[in-house]
Amino acid sequence: MHSHDNMISYNVAVDKITAFAEEVVSTSLAIEELPLLKALDRVAAKDVRGPEGPEGTLPRWDNSAMDGICVNARHIASAQAKLAAAAGEDGESEVKIRSLGRVVAGDAPPTFTPNMWDYEDGDIVCYEIMTGAPVPKGNFFDSVIKIEDLGRTRLVRQIEEDVEPEQSIFTLPFTTHILQGQHIRRAGEDIPAGYLLLSKGTLITPGHIALLASFGILRVSVPRRPRIAIITTGKELTSTTSATPTTSSLAAGRIFDTNGPYLFSTLLSTHLLSASDITLLPSRNDSPEHFEELVLTHVLGSETKYDVVISTGAVSMGVHDFVPAAVRRLGFDVGFHHLGIKPGHPALFATLPKGERQGGVAFFALPGNPGAVGATERFLVRPYLRTLLGLPREGPTFATLLQPSHICKKVGTRNWLKARFVRSTSNDEGLGVEVLDKMQGSGMMRGLAEGDCYVELLEGAESVQSGQRVRCWRFGGEGV
């Protein structure tokens, strides 16, 4: 009988994993500078701040939020009050507003003060202004009346074909109320000068790219993406990456390799890696010698610098479970082997310290059952990659368990159950979760296809009841 006296808790395991990742980050993971348009889904390596001064604000100047006319609200209100006091049944009921010109987006703002040109006291003037156009300088024009409002108030625009825009006359009913400052976007109201546009450790989204582009920041520093080698073991496996196999072509006792394609695709689903960062290494002869030769040749002896090796299978304590001993012979230091988790308790984590061969390599030996591969990638490999890239640790999503009966587990282990989020009207948040019935076996794959999250049951829990709030982790990661 084999002993698992050296089995450690999940929290201790993650601490070991992230500690090595932090060591690699501080000593060997390179920073590269990318064009902005290639920075999507990369992680910011540095804080990025906007410029100081007016050029560092957004908007950079006061501008119109609408197509319409730019006016002085106090003068409009004064003219409306005079009309209201004097108007009879047949009296004048509209303020006449004379246009001094037109300003469109891309124009330099005109300057106007009341003592300029032919302006006279009592003369109500405006500039026609388009969305995004700068408000005229001089602190006189302080509000915009949108063209739709003028139209709804029986706007009369008196323009002849041969009359310049400066001679346009607008009319506005005295009952239309104008708020000072309406429909004007003030300089810096969105982004003040010197603002932190992008924080170190942030996953860059389209919104970040738009924000940086608005300040002319066209290059971004990011950590180099880690390169990952995947090795699937098992005499029974038939490759799914070379030929075009069919079920009828399988020899007796053989199955198609699913772990390699699953790991490749689930790592891509994190948006932390590209396809070129992941290599499925050919594993054709299930033996310790072949396994060691594969690692020596394709990983440690390769011109490609692999940062992470993930193997599946042959990691427990059976007769053919040769990976733990092979990893040690290859010079890796084993951080842990066997965890208090389900599924995936035989998982192994080992490291090759910097300075030995290529150095700074993390080795994750995962169990061979696909359900265990899914869970151990999500909860062991993923934290390592996030730390390596400078991302913070994820937090769970909480949802209400919707089950016909309670779920039991062994105290002392951390369990992850394949599940599916559902929208529920039976709880305030509206988010429920259903554990997938009859899909929890380590060898079962249907739950990985039909589910979208794991329900996590902590070590101290013995059971969980329907209606309880439970910790959930999305398959694809935080926010995915």
From TrEMBL:
It catalyses: molybdopterin + ATP + H(+) = adenylyl-molybdopterin + diphosphate; adenylyl-molybdopterin + molybdate = Mo-molybdopterin + AMP + H(+). Residues 229-387 form the MoaB/Mog domain. The keyword Metal-binding applies. One of its GO terms (cellular component) is cytosol. It is an enzyme of class 2 (transferase). Its EC number is 2.7.7.75. It holds the Pfam family MoeA_C. Belongs to the MoeA family. This is molybdopterin adenylyltransferase. It comes from Saitoella complicata (strain BCRC 22490 / CBS 7301 / JCM 7358 / NBRC 10748 / NRRL Y-17804).
